[in-house]
Amino acid sequence: MTQSFLSSAAVQAQQHLPLSIQGLTVRDRNQVIIEDLWLDLQSGQTTALLGPNGAGKSTLMHALMGLVPLSSGSASILGHDITTSGVQARNHTMLISDSIGLLEDFTALEHFEYGQDMRSAWDQNQALEVAKQFGLPLNQPARRLSKGQRMALRTAFAFGAQPELLLLDEPTNGLDPENRSRFLSLMVDFVATGGTVLIATHVLSEIETIADRLVIMKRGTLLMNAEMEELRQHRNLLHVNFDRELTDAETTRLRNVPGVYRMGTRGRSLTLHVRGEVTLLTQMIEQEFPVQNIHIQPLTLEQVYVETMGGQL
Ligand SMILES: Nc1ncnc2c1ncn2[C@@H]1O[C@H](COP(=O)(O)OP(=O)(O)OP(=O)(O)O)[C@@H](O)[C@H]1O
Question: What residue ranges line ligand 1, CB within 6 angstroms?
Fold first, then answer.
């Protein structure tokens, strides 16, 4: 009895996640573009979606918006299946991407009027406020807007629609540094009020401080899905200076310490890449080796990314 109650509660919780992706697969003829992808997003979080060109990030977002058919698997947005209840699912979702077309003869204001007709939950003040923040001309047809202004229009439109889930595909493309920073502040405020963001970007510095979760894709599959906090605490570089050069035996001993997965040496200095708890390891090194000083440095997002992709820094 208890068991069945718990499992139905778990199913209900799953159904109301802002986004739940289960085994999503997209094929184009014989080519697999996304393969068996599983991912849950939590409300009030920003998830960074990273991966090399052609990894499948845009295809994933297009699939979630119903622009690309799923070959198998499923996904739901706030409990609405994107295939069988697509309209309800996308009522809560907006995609900001330069792949999303504009009504080229319509001005920003006319786009907003269109939004008012299309969306029952449209918030005109919000659309106008975001447009104002970006300095967007309201009365020029979209075809006469610059690349950055077009992105600002998509952003203002997306916020007018009052989404609960924002899918962002390189959303700061074309924005100048000030508008880039405004865009990121908007994201932070959106998430702080319970919104959920999935952002694909190659600009790691943009998301280093705002992402709660990091997801890395390569060739259509997930390579990593981790909390940023966990990465910060559990992926560190230890820079150690010794009183003298270590012997080969000492170096080998350090290399084999549990948690150390890479090591670089230069004279009396050594850099250890450490996964997991770092305090006990530091104490052990201080006790057993002729240490002058140790400096602990969390891996940057770029270092985590490059390591995950199998590269060297
Ligand atoms: N319209 C399309 N028709 C056929 N294949 C496509 C189409 N769009 C993308 N692809 C293929 O799907 C794969 C994934 O492309 P996608 O654009 O999703 O990658 P991405 O991770 O967003 O890359 P980028 O970082 O360059 O934006 C690539 O192999 C690409 O060639």
Answer: 28, 33, 51, 53-59
Q: Is the separation of the CB atoms in 175 and 152 below 8 Å?
A: yes
Count Cβ atoms below 10 Å from residue 185 Cβ, excluding itself: 12
> How many residues appear in the chain?
313
pLDDT tens readout for residues 277-307: 888 889 999 999 999 999 999 888 888 888 8
Contacts (Cβ under 8 Å, ≥6 apart) of 288: none
Specify whether domain 231-308 bears CATH 3.30.70.980. yes
Ligand 1 pocket: which of 24, 37, 57 to mutate (most atoms within 8 A of CB): 57
CA of 46 to the centre of ligand 1 (A): 23
Q: d(Cα 77, Cα 64) in Å, to the nearest integer?
A: 9
Minimum-distance ligand 1 atom for the alpha carbon of 51: 21
| Predicted ipTM of the assembly | 0.94
Task: Enumerate the domain spans of the chain.
Answer: 231-308
